[in-house]
Amino acid sequence: MILGVETSCDETSAAVISPRKVYSNIISSQAVHVDFGGVVPELASRAHVRKIIPIVNEALVEANVRLSDIKGLAVTHGPGLVGALLVGLNYVKGLALALNIPLVGVNHIEGHIYANFLEGKSIPFPFICLVVSGGHTQIVLVRDHLEYRILGETRDDAVGEAFDKVAKILGLPYPGGPQIDQLAAQGNPDFIEFPRALLKSGQFDFSYSGLKTAVLNKINEMGEEQCRFSLNDICASFQKAAVEVLVKKTIEAARSFQVRHITLAGGVAANSLLRRWMTEDAAAYHLNVIFPPQKYCTDNAAMIARAGLEYLRRNGGNNLDLNVFPSLRLPEYQKDTND
Amino acid sequence: MTDNSETTYLLAIETSGIASGVYVSRNKELLGQVTLYQKNIHSRRLSLSVQQLLQHLDLSLKDLQAIILSAGPGSFTGLRIGYSLAKGLAHASNLRILEIPTLDVWAYQVGQTGLPILSYIDAHREEIFFSCYEREQDRLKQTSDYRIIPLLNLPQMITGKTLISGGNLQMFREKFRNVLGNHAIFPQVCSRQAEGWALLALGYEKFKAGDFSQIENCEPLYLRSFKGVM
């Protein structure tokens, strides 16, 4: 059994898993950031220090195990907020030293990809993973376990960040993604034609800062009253523009690299339009789309533990001098002519 | 490797400032220490220092009775690294935690003169974290709260000759002279850090008094709230 710990942003999470089962996956979201309309790093770090032991204890109790039953430790060591990451990593180092068991540092994005492998599930290799969250927008080719190649990524804002910022502009509560999704369901997605950045670039990179600015300009142009009246339509139009680029590029990537399986990862993978549209377009090209269960899409420790398990199996653990890396990138395999 | 049931082994961790320090004592006696003075090294080296120091002393975590934490104020990140590591160690080894405010340590390590003491830690922006102490028989008695104050306001607090103890005294000596004139007395030897032997001594007293912290929710003494929210 593996204990996973995730503290890269504003969620303190701990999970106990085995290859076939998630025994517990406790996630504590920090309410304190709601008042600020976004995550305040110093407050996040302080909350992790207070919560880490209670959350781990809750995960152990729910799994009905003791720390002495744990055989390995996995912890997020990047990317993320440096102060927040340091709490999880150093707490886990303390456990590793005291229990004399291996610890492994996991890339947070890698964790999201491995949400697809929880509870004994798997995806045939190779597959394309669209990683979409508040901090990341990447298309990743996964050739085999722990073998990645980043095909494209955002050049500025992450798509989840665009959802949150647009929600803030529209006066919707934080986090804004689910709010926009809900309101968009009642709106006309063709009400405003927002730009689709880099859609026809022939590459797999994204850009979302222009879309956010376009929404801001439109809202200023419309005025407060008209904007309130058309709130659902604005949400639906923004969402359509944001999602269309994700879907088209992911499908294009799968076709270019002759990969048959596509999966989604990260918080935005819960977006209903993205799921629907990806399923429809993939079907048209006879591609298979796999969604991780909704509960494993947002930041959680089970996915970190699952990726960690793969490292422990193959490479063993890391040394105690493991550090955090706020801008850690996925480890990419050496490209060869077959790719 | 406990000698007998009366022996108390304590591990102390200091990460409030530039030093990444780990110390072990047997009763009141310092048995060994690892102190590193490199920037941004706490996260990489602190756990290794604990491991190696215990190995050198032929001790294991099971031999310890408690972990002493230098509680701050000081570097928020440094303090959190010390606290997080200690929480992991204590959680898995059923060790108890003793928190010692770092200003007490700075005062204790110069506390032999009989003068009133002001201990301080740089809070940046021309402010200091500070606390005041006076000698009462063989003990130091705290005569103020732990507070943060602009250096310029110090004369309101200090009205007589006072021994100043704190970090980076080379830089602060002139600042204290400017605001306190010859009321500011400085120790002959300047420490670079809150000293491990002093931290262990205060921790041992607290251990004897049974004044343990809750390992679940203990957190550093930040002293500076963040945007009004704590």
Per-chain topology:
The complex is a heterodimer of chains A (339) and B (230).
Chain A: E1 2-6, E2 11-17, E3 22-29, H1 41-63, E4 72-78, H2 82-99, E5 103-107, H3 108-114, E6 127-132, E7 137-144, E8 147-153, H4 159-169, H5 177-184, H6 209-222, H7 224-229, H8 231-256, E9 261-265, H9 272-284, E10 288-290, H10 301-314
Parallel strand pairs in A: 1-4, 4-5, 6-9, 9-10
Antiparallel strand pairs in A: 1-2, 2-3, 6-7, 7-8
Helix pairs in contact in A: 1-2, 3-10, 4-6, 4-8, 5-8, 8-9
Chain B: E1 9-14, E2 20-26, E3 29-36, H1 42-56, E4 66-70, H2 76-93, E5 96-100, H3 102-108, E6 117-122, E7 127-136, E8 139-142, E9 147-150, E10 162-166, H4 169-180, E11 184-185, H5 196-209
Parallel strand pairs in B: 1-4, 4-5, 6-10, 10-11
Antiparallel strand pairs in B: 1-2, 2-3, 6-7, 7-8, 7-9
Helix pairs in contact in B: 1-2
List keywords for this structure.
heterodimer, A: 339 residues, alpha/beta, Nucleotidyltransferase, domain 5, five-stranded mixed beta sheet, B: 230 residues, 11 strands, 29% helix, globular
Describe this structure in words.
- The complex is a heterodimer of chains A (339) and B (230).
- Chain A is of the alpha/beta class and 339 residues long.
- Chain A has 2 domains: 2-114 and 296-314, Nucleotidyltransferase, domain 5; 126-292, ATPase, nucleotide binding domain (Nucleotidyltransferase, domain 5), CATH 3.30.420.40.
- Chain A contains 10 helices and 10 strands.
- Chain A has helices at residues 41-63, 82-99, 108-114, 159-169, 177-184, 209-222, 224-229, 231-256, 272-284, 301-314, and strands at residues 2-6, 11-17, 22-29, 72-78, 103-107, 127-132, 137-144, 147-153, 261-265, 288-290.
- The radius of gyration of chain A is 20 Å and the shape is globular.
- Chain B is α/β, with parallel strands linked by helices and 230 residues long.
- In chain B, helix 1 (42-56) packs across helix 2.
- The radius of gyration of chain B is 18 Å and the shape is globular.
- In chain B, the strands form 2 sheets. In chain B, strands 6, 7, 8, 9, 10 and 11 form a 6-stranded mixed beta sheet that branches. A 5-stranded mixed beta sheet of chain B has the order 3-2-1-4-5, sandwiched between helices.
- The longest helix of chain B is centred in the middle third of the chain and has 18 residues, at 76-93.
- Chain A binds chain B through residues 32, 35-36, 40, 42-43, 45-46, 49-50, 52-54, 56-57, 67, 82-83, 86-99, 320-324, and chain B through 43-48, 50-51, 61, 76-77, 80-81, 83-93, 215-217, 219-220, 222, 226-227, 229-230.
